[in-house]
From TrEMBL:
<dbReference type="GO" id="GO:0001681">
    <property type="term" value="F:sialate O-acetylesterase activity"/>
</dbReference>
<keyword id="KW-0378">Hydrolase</keyword>
<dbReference type="InterPro" id="IPR005181">
    <property type="entry name" value="SASA"/>
</dbReference>
<feature type="signal peptide">
    <location>
        <begin position="1"/>
        <end position="23"/>
    </location>
</feature>
<dbReference type="GO" id="GO:0005975">
    <property type="term" value="P:carbohydrate metabolic process"/>
</dbReference>
<dbReference type="Pfam" id="PF03629">
    <property type="entry name" value="SASA"/>
</dbReference>
<feature type="domain" description="Sialate O-acetylesterase">
    <location>
        <begin position="417"/>
        <end position="535"/>
    </location>
</feature>
<dbReference type="InterPro" id="IPR008979">
    <property type="entry name" value="Galactose-bd-like_sf"/>
</dbReference>
<protein>
    <recommendedName>
        <fullName>Sialate O-acetylesterase domain-containing protein</fullName>
    </recommendedName>
</protein>
<dbReference type="InterPro" id="IPR039329">
    <property type="entry name" value="SIAE"/>
</dbReference>
<keyword id="KW-0732">Signal</keyword>
<dbReference type="InterPro" id="IPR036514">
    <property type="entry name" value="SGNH_hydro_sf"/>
</dbReference>
Length: 657
């Protein structure tokens, strides 16, 4: 009897398997259990099957039937649904005279608003790296917020699918890995609008806007078209790209899996490191005497521990080390950190690794793209046992070249079209509500060109999605770098101007964050306010909340009155203020000689008067025009004014391609 049951089961499995192989139903990886589908629009669902196969798509009691074309591609449009769920999305396919149908089912599907979150590292920066991360992670319990992270990928031609990815709901075990900006944005919308929110996160740090744009619009920009054409001529049949893929694998294998220097006994207390260089920690190493360096650098410090510390676990706090690092104590691996994925950089050193007297701390760092070392402040670099602390600041020895050189590779994520091809095109035509975007740092050197490239990308994505003028909400660059004592020209200011000018395009909105940057960190930790201000923009622009003020003052016009220039602003209906009732700061004024001087500025009702004793016949005013300006103009709703200028004098990047 048992044998008969086995034979019947085997026949059924074989029969079903035969149908499965025949129908060859495949769904793009942007679809998955726990996903959010866009409410209130016809829902596009697509995939692959055998040519001529019949495909059924079922969701919330509605069924749509379609057929795959001669290439096996199919697409169905489901009826619009209001916010709700959870549901199950089922897709069936059969070919010819099949009785059984191959089935793919996605469970726990919600209907809500889906946003594509894209850009470079400040959008990619994780919740675990943001301000108050432990508390934020502990309190994260939002089952109706779902994230899909698109894996990093590049391609010379447009792809139809992303690399494997998984939709996840927000809780304290998952939230740490997601974009902080996108999470705080989605959290606010979920709470205020009481709807499920889906975030498709497609980000890559250190990338320019042209990498996220498709080929066709870029070919109308001569300098970029030249790069594309030259690269296509050099990469015939994709050979250069294929070779680079092999080299990249070798590159990361050497970084992640090699620690050959330990074979040289550098962990020994009596190891002779007299030929190593010395660095006063905390510090970063960004410039080398012999030029740029990418590779592995070892840092070494000998510490003397008192007898009382022996036999006890120690805590070691590395403060703010850069990116990829490995920490060893007396040659024993304590941690391996990849891409700053740690919630903190404090680690326990087990008592069994600790000796009375001299002990050796080793830090193995991958120096990539100009980063390396340990960032200040000094008081975050120490050993501790109980209430006792031993500072690790001061002289550390360091040495490069102890391991194999990294092979030369091409960073195709910087090339025009490559990120669009691999990380945006495969998402189309997934139903979405709009886009949120934080990028620009990698284009500051070509800020003038950004005035063309950025709107071009926005239009490109809207055209490709075919969902009309989808809302495009973006972040203006934060303040960064050291402050200047006098008015100066600034690439960062010019990039912010390009972003400000993009507000002229329909259905766009901008979050100004000129007040929450950090001089020494291009990745400011306060992502809560960034997400909140983007959410305000969404409430006002997308959800039509007339009671929400979403933008700080924006320059509108100037009027010259003798030795004074009068400025008027938009978004100032509730009044203008200087933060903390201080004197207005950040204004500079110039005459026809184009030389700017700090100015006196005073709020007069809904306008501002600007003047300087050094400029008797003024022609132009600038506000917040610097890398890291000291400026304090706000509206009474607590939102900062965007930096601006009233002139059109030639900038630093105007003649750069």
């Amino acid at each position: 009897m048992r044998m008969i049951k086995y034979k019947i089961t085997f026949l059924l499995i074989s029969l079903f398997s035969g149908f499965t192989a025949t129908a060859q139903l495949v769904m793009p990886k942007v679809f998955g259990s726990n996903m959010v589908l866009q409410r209130d629009i016809a829902i596009p669902v697509w995939g692959k099957a055998n040519p001529g196969a019949k495909v059924w798509v079922e969701l919330a009691g509605n069924t749509t039937i379609t057929n795959s074309n001669s290439n096996g591609s199919w697409k169905a449009m489901l009826n619009a649904l209001p916010a709700g769920g959870p549901y199950e999305l089922k897709v069936y396919a059969s070919s010819g005279n099949e009785v059984a149908k191959e089935t793919i089912a996605f469970k726990n599907v919600l209907i809500g608003d889906v946003w594509v979150a894209s850009g470079q590292s400040n959008m990619e920066m994780k919740v675990s790296e943001s301000k108050n991360a432990p508390t934020e992670i502990k309190n994260a319990k939002y089952p109706n917020i779902r994230f899909l992270i698109v894996p990093h990928d590049v391609a010379p031609e447009a792809k139809t699918d992303i690399l494997p990815a998984e939709w996840k709901s927000i809780d304290s075990t998952t939230v740490g890995e997601f974009s902080a900006v996108a999470y705080y944005f989605s959290r606010h919308l979920n709470q205020q609008e009481n709807i499920p929110v889906g975030i498709i996160q497609s980000t890559w740090g250190g990338t320019p806007v042209e990498a996220w744009t498709s080929k066709e619009p870029l070919m109308s920009v001569p300098s970029v078209a030249k790069i594309i054409t030259q690269h296509e001529n050099e990469n015939v049949n994709g050979e250069s790209f294929k070779k680079n893929e092999v080299l990249i694998k070798q590159y990361w294998d050497l970084i992640q899996n090699s620690a050959n220097a330990l074979k040289q006994n550098i962990q020994a207390v009596n190891y002779d490191d007299s030929k190593w260089s010395t660095l006063q920690m905390p510090a970063t190493v960004r410039k080398w005497a012999d030029g740029p360096y990418q590779g592995i650098v070892w840092f070494r410090k000998v510490v003397e521990l008192p007898e009382i510390a022996a036999g006890k676990d120690l805590q070691i706090n590395l403060g703010h080390p850069e990116m990829n690092y490995w920490l060893y104590f007396n040659g024993q691996l304590i941690c391996q950190n990849k891409w700053n994925n740690a919630l903190s950089h404090t680690y326990t050193v087990p008592a069994k690794f600790i000796k009375k007297g001299k002990n050796v701390i080793l830090l193995r760092e991958a120096f990539l793209w100009g980063g390396g070392g340990i960032n200040p402040p000094a008081d975050s670099l120490y050993l501790s046992y109980g209430t006792n602390k031993i500072s690790l600041t001061g002289a550390w020895k360091y040495k490069k070249g102890l391991e194999s050189d990294l092979p030369p590779t091409i960073n195709y994520q910087h090339y025009p079209t490559y990120l669009y091809n691999a990380m945006i095109n495969p998402l189309i035509p997934y139903g979405i509500k709009g886009f949120i975007w934080y990028q620009g740092e990698n284009n500051t050197g070509s800020a003038y060109l950004y005035k063309t490239l950025f709107p071009s990308m926005i239009n490109d994505w809207r055209v490709r999605w075919k969902q009309g003028y989808l809302p495009f909400l973006y972040v203006q660059l934060a303040n960064y770098l050291q402050q200047n004592p006098e008015p100066v020209n600034s690439e960062w200011a010019e990039l912010r101007e390009a972003q400000l000018n993009t507000l002229h395009y329909p259905n766009t909105a901008m979050a100004t964050i000129i007040d929450i940057g950090e001089a020494n960190d291009i990745h400011p930790k306060n992502k809560q306010d960034v997400g909140y201000r983007l959410a305000l923009a969404a409430e006002a622009k997308v959800y039509n909340r007339s009671d929400v003020v979403s933008q700080g003052p924006v320059y509108d016009s100037q009027q010259i009155q003798g030795n004074t220039i009068v400025l008027r602003f938009k978004n100032a209906e509730n009044g203008l203020i200087a933060l903390n009732n201080d004197q207005l700061k950040g204004f500079a004024i110039a005459g026809s000689d184009q030389k700017f001087y700090w100015a006196t500025a005073a709020i007069k009702g809904d306008f501002i008067e600007v003047s300087s004793a050094k400029v008797s016949n003024p022609v132009a005013v600038r506000y917040g025009w610097a890398d890291n300006p000291d400026c304090n103009l706000y509206n009474k709703n607590g939102l900062p004014a965007s930096p601006f200028r009233t002139d059109s004098f030639e900038g630093l990047t105007d003649k750069r391609n």
